Write a sequence for this structure.
């Protein structure tokens, strides 16, 4: 079998403005990094638009109508200081969520071993009732809830190694003990949530990491906290909120990881997916703002996905 | 390991290489097999080797960070105290 790569041209058209770090160039860097000969085996698929029903499992109707309703005909509209919409943003957000939903369907149907969704806008800061932190709809959570509702899976997990805490995914999951969310993130840092004491109904694992801590504490956090809890949760499907802004070159944070750390954590997560979920794993792009580091890190991550 | 015929540049030596040569010098000096002028040269080189070994150890110590979990659950790395 193979690894699927979902993306959509609208994800390149979503443009929060010049000087915004969450730029179309990020996705171009990711796709360029995955264009080499060793990635020829990737099965490339166009991401469909998410169905409204899929989005509404995570977000309120008010939120969805608000976001899609304020998309500008021209120029930009800012939801907050960080979160800016251009004319293509609504379409891009629907395709980003649709990528994860379609990837879940394909992996569940065993059309492939696993999938990577090269999409933007990212999703993990988007709360059920609030767009923020460059995120409009919570792509990973939308995929997770579709897996439960449509495919009848009991337990679905999201592991998030983006350098920021995924407050949106936590907010969507924290009251439901058949959903699991675990995050390593720099702390203190935007958005300010993700303290170790935030544990939901025992289904949330937050491991904050001090700035400059690097590979050692990251791996200890994973092996000591996140992976044992994930193992005990026994997910039927594993999703990864794959942000690569914990890389040492990233301009927005200082966690000092390297490509080898992304290789390592991807291998560990695949092991757990095989132990409990017949290998079912869907990864989706979140942050990562140094273009060279982002390309190299995604390449390392996807190389491991393809090695299954 | 054969004794070096001419002195190797100490700065380029690994910790292990420097320690081996230092031990050879110590053995020769303790054995009383060397003439006084050679002994002085050997002593000086031995001191340089010892300094180099200490520098290498110090560098290694800085790389061995201790991973600590604070009372607030925040994970971080701090320099290990290898006393």
């Amino acid at each position: 079998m193979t690894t699927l790569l979902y993306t959509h041209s609208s994800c390149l058209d979503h443009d929060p403005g010049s000087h915004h770090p969450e730029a179309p160039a990020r996705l171009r860097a990711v796709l360029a990094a995955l264009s080499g000969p060793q990635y020829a085996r990737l099965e490339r698929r166009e991401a469909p638009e998410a169905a409204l029903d899929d989005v509404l499992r995570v977000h309120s109707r008010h939120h969805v109508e608000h976001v899609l309703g304020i998309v500008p005909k021209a120029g930009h509209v800012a939801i907050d200081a960080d979160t800016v919409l251009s004319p293509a943003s609504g379409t891009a957000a629907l395709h980003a969520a649709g990528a994860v939903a379609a990837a879940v369907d394909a992996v569940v149907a065993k059309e492939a071993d696993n999938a990577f969704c090269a999409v933007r806008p990212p999703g993990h800061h988007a709360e059920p009732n609030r767009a923020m932190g460059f995120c409009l709809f919570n792509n990973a959570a939308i995929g997770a809830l579709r897996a439960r509702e449509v495919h009848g899976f009991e337990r679905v997990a999201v592991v998030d190694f983006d350098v920021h805490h995924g407050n949106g995914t936590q907010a969507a999951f924290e009251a439901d003990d058949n959903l699991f969310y675990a995050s390593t993130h720099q702390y203190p840092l935007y958005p300010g949530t993700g303290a170790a004491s935030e544990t939901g109904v025992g289904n949330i694992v937050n491991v904050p990491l001090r700035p400059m801590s690097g590979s050692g504490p990251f791996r200890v956090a994973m092996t000591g906290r996140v992976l044992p809890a994930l193992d005990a949760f026994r997910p039927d499907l594993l999703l990864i909120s794959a942000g690569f802004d914990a890389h040492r070159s990233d301009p927005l944070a200082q966690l000092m990881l390297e490509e080898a750390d992304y290789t390592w954590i991807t291998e560990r997560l695949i092991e757990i997916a095989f132990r409990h979920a017949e290998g079912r794993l869907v990864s989706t792009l979140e942050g990562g703002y140094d273009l060279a580091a982002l390309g190299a890190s995604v390449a390392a991550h996807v190389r491991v996905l393809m090695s299954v | 390991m054969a004794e070096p015929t001419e002195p190797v540049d100490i700065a380029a030596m690994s910790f292990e290489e420097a320690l081996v040569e230092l031990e050879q010098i110590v053995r020769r000096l303790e054995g009383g097999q060397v003439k006084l002028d050679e002994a002085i040269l050997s002593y000086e080189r031995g001191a340089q080797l010892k300094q180099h070994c200490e520098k290498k150890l110090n560098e290694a110590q800085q790389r061995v960070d201790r991973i600590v979990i604070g009372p607030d659950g925040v994970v971080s790395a701090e320099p290990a105290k290898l006393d």
Q: What stands out?
A: Chain A has one domain: 3-306. The interface with chain B takes residues 187, 195-197, 206-210, 212-214, 216-217, 220-221 of chain A (CB under 8 Å). The two ends of chain A are 9 Å apart (CA to CA). Strands of chain A lie at 3-7, 43-46, 77-78, 84-85, 114-117, 156-160, 179-186, 204-209, 237-242, 281-285.
